[in-house]
Amino acid sequence: RERSKATTMEEALLQFAPMQSSVDEGFWHRLSSLKLNKLGIDDSPIHIFGFYAPCSHSQVSNHLTVLAESLPSELSEASLIPEPSRGNRNRCSVPGILYNTNTVESFHALDKHSLLKKEAAKIWDDIISGKAVEDCSLLSRFLVISFADLKKWTFNYWFAFPALMLNPPATVVNLKPASNWFSVAEAESLSAACNEWRSSKSTADVPFFLVTIDPNSRATVRLLKDWEACQSNAHKILFGFYDPCHLPNNPGWPLRNFLALISARWNLNSVQFFCYRENRGFADMRFSLVGEALITVPQGWKDTVPNAVGWELNKGRKVPRCISLAQSMDPTRLAISAADLNLKLMRWRALPSLNLNALSSMKCLLLGAGTLGCQVARMLMAWGVRKITLVDNGRVAMSNPLRQSLYTLDDCLNGGESKATAAVESLKRIFPAVEAEGIVMAIPMPGHPVNNQEQDSVLHDCRRLHDLIDAHDSVFLLTDTRESRWLPTLLCANTNKITITAALGFDSFLVMRHGAGPLSHAHNFSAETTNSSPADRLGCYFCNDVVAPTDSTSNRTLDQQCTVTRPGLAPIASALAVELLIGILHHPQGIFAEADINNSATGATEKPLGILPHQIRGSLSQFSQMTLLGYSSSSCTACSHTVVSEYRNQGMEFILQAINHPTYLEDLTGLTELMKSATLLSLDWDKENDEEDDDCLEI
């Protein structure tokens, strides 16, 4: 009879329903952001939290869920353990550890047996030390390994819920619904006590507890640390836990480590356990289970960590899971993430000082939407600039799409779309998140006089250009003619805006940054009160001229009217122009930065982005490039103290004078006198040469 009883107990092994995982999409978004913006290539373990609750549906088990808040925020240290919110009855927090690898090969190469054993050892240490009695959530520690492919938005992952194995395994006697185990009075009292426990903010999310029932059928729910106090007056003692499982004949996974704690801490061989389950948020004794577990452990078993199991199965197989969020993500959001990926990867190793916030908030004004303007706009977006305004008054011609990358044949039909409008529409098709605006307007130019009927329209354009420059942080001068760059150069010097010029010849180019305005009070030079030394600041596009800009389009043949350049020139110059802006933004002195040349002592080794030149001149015929330095001229027709001051004093009247009178700027800046002096000097030199020639003839 004893042998038959033993055989029956062996057959009734206590079998547990495995814990199941659920990952909220927000968890992957937070992990991606954390990886890109903070962790980089650091693959140290990350402390996380998961959440579960008692089963509340007779057909569906609850899962352990990880959410965005399971991970530390970007503002906190990843090595710190995040603090979960407490008191939420539907979120019992459980500590976990995340190993996120840098490559998929590293993910597959992880020693899963060792990782599981390591977490199981933590659980065992918490049991032996008594920490698990004080904080019972430690019994449900979990482990996640993952690899995040941030280019494809796919995530490989595998959960493990370490469970200590009793040897020999525990057996179960008389497992049945709680309503059949207790008397009616006991069941009612226990339901009321559990509901009160679950309603209290201090205990609602405590997943392991003691249940005592006195001789009067009154049930009480207590913390595990009250075990000693329960010994004297309790008629019945049960060990309760929040059971996420819905199965009628199997308790949930958390009971495994709970039995190990009971056996190790209190040396019990027979344990009555209570699988607490709910229906619509209240205790359900018909759904909950009660059983008796029989535990037999060998002597000295506490001296070593028990073996552990717990890797989650994927459709019955021991393989990781993979999820792709690319299909579920909004296309615009996916485009933003993909666009930022390369920039954020730069910060991992190559350029940790890259200021993405400065780039994304930068407002760039592009004057000209032709060959240069199209290329510059695309390069700016590649660097993370999101606010771009293009100004042009031309229309897309049939000859444009091959060289101007934002236009297609459709933009040329029916007389051609406005370049500014078509360029903006193209930018938004390329990257929907760009904040682009197209302005159709002409830029007033010196040497192109206006009559009285046109004056109001020209002044309106001048004021509009002034407002546009004032509203932006940087300005690119990308127009076809020299004179069209004069007014923007003056307005930028007046407002001290970052200004980049790119200009093309047939096989040569110039890319340069303009110096700070002459009336700037920043950096290490003070405002000019007189014509100061040219060494005070860097020059502008016009500082080397000895004549004012004039009409360069009239009386020109077709090849002189069009910008005839080698096709490869514009992309090179455009890229350099944008790189020059990025260098200014990341230089501690910004627009006031001194100029470097390629053989200067301060080289790229000292600056993350290398040198910051003033001018870059290149030649495709020689396949050469050089950096040059030019200081501002006190006689400059665009950025000198005299011109900027006169503009401030006279405003639009000054601009009209410059437009209508070809010599006005030369007279104002002293270039006229300079040319006269040069002519007289040349005459004197010629006279001296003639006298010398006469002497020679006489000899």
Automatic annotation (TrEMBL):
Function field: E1-like activating enzyme involved in the 2 ubiquitin-like systems required for autophagy.
Residue ranges occupied by any THIF-type NAD/FAD binding fold domain in the UniProt entry: 346-589
Gene Ontology molecular function terms on file: Atg12 activating enzyme activity; Atg8 activating enzyme activity
Subunit composition and interactions: Homodimer.
Assigned protein family: Belongs to the ATG7 family.
Active-site feature positions: C562
Entry superkingdom: Eukaryota
Name of one Pfam family that matches: ATG7_N
Signal peptide: none
Domain Ubiquitin-like modifier-activating enzyme Atg7 N-terminal residues, every copy: 14-329
Cell compartments where the protein resides: Cytoplasm; Preautophagosomal structure
Protein known as: Ubiquitin-like modifier-activating enzyme ATG7
InterPro entries in alphabetical order: Atg7 (IPR006285), Atg7_N (IPR032197), Atg7_N_1 (IPR042522), Atg7_N_2 (IPR042523), ThiF/MoeB/HesA (IPR045886), ThiF_NAD_FAD-bd (IPR000594), Ubiquitin-activating_enz (IPR035985)
Biological classification of the source: Eukaryota, Viridiplantae, Streptophyta, Embryophyta, Tracheophyta
GO cellular component terms listed in the entry, alphabetical order: phagophore assembly site
